[in-house]
Amino acid sequence: MKMEEGSRYMFLIEKEINFNNRDFFVLSGPDKRKYLLDRQDYADYCLEPGKMVDCRVDKINCQGEVFLEPRHPVYTEGESYSFEVAGTEERIEKSGAKTEVVLLGDSRGKTISVPGSVPGYSDIKPGTSVNLVIDRIIKGELKVSGEANEKHSPKEEDSRVREFYIISRSKGIDGKDYFLVKDKDDEKYTLAAEYYSHYGLKKGSSFRGRLVKYTSMDRLTVEPLNPFYEPGSIYNFVVHELIRISENQLYLIVKDKHGFKHRTDFLDGVEKGQPVKCRVEKMRKGWPVLVPV
Fold it and tell me: Strand runs (DSSP E) across 97-201, as ranges?
């Protein structure tokens, strides 16, 4: 069968695997193919191997990659819910600009943040309740309309290495931690701290990096130089696991000398425990994109 964008299907959670220092669920779909789901994004969904999970096919990109969104255990997109106002807090947008968010408590005791620019929410008082329509749920996060238009840098992507300085570590609108950094022209950017925890970055230090866009739709961001790998170079790895996504699609999980595990394309004739060589094609969100050689 062929799955379609926007449709929902049932998937079986087969097992957990780890690579790039993150845990993933391996799901088996109704089309008999395997899919990966980031466990961290759905930590409060009570997902575990052996369970069935209802997922929406959120997107199928031009490479045929399928992105899934499990059904939220409490909230439904397009529906209105009551939230208690816990207060306000100053956070940073991805451009580095400071903004005020309204903190709301949900029915499970969790706190979600709403940009203060959302009409009707900028002057609400702690202890009161508001009704909020859930527009979208993406990677387990509740999204509402009215988010502030962020300031975009006028600079363009380039391969030149430049120096960046870490100003602070702050919470973003989404509640996750970000490093606020600036370049020599005082242009500010943010880095998702979760992707670079193994780099040893901290407030007051500096690092060298490049300005990149991960896709044509993404805003300009910073990719620090990796302390372990250099794009274009070849390194030794050991095959940790073979993952079959479909009859004709296999992945290798390989382990490096630092103890990190990575996903890469399948190489004919390799077996678990066997050494392999991979070239670092590029860096993406703190981790190397590997190509077997």
Answer: 98-105, 111-115, 129-133, 136-138, 141-143, 158-171, 177-182, 188-192
Give the 3-state secondary structure of residue 194: helix
Q: What is the pLDDT of residues 142-178, one digit of tens each?
A: 887 544 344 445 555 566 788 999 999 999 888 889 9
Contact present, 22 and 38 (Cβ < 8 Å) = yes
Tokens linked to 74: 């409490």
Token reading at 255:
């382990």
Mean pLDDT of 235-253: 81
Q: What is the mean pLDDT of residues 91-111?
A: 82
Q: What would the pLDDT profile of 186-225 be if each residue is shown by its tens digit?
A: 888 899 998 898 898 999 999 999 888 765 555 678 889 9
CB 11 within 8 A of CB 27: yes
* Contact criterion met (CB below 8 Å) for 98 and 123: no
d(CA 136, CA 138): 6
Interior CA angle at 260 toward 201 and 200, to 5°? 10
Q: What whole-number distance in Å separates Cα of residue 120 and Cα of residue 133?
A: 13
Query: Quick check: 231 and 210 in contact, CB under 8 A?
Result: no
Q: Residue 175 corresponds to which tokens in the numbers above? A: 């509640």
The token duo for 66 is: 């399928």
Cβ-contact 7, 57 below 8 angstroms: yes
Mean pLDDT computed over every residue of the chain: 84
Give the pLDDT mean for 117-139. 74
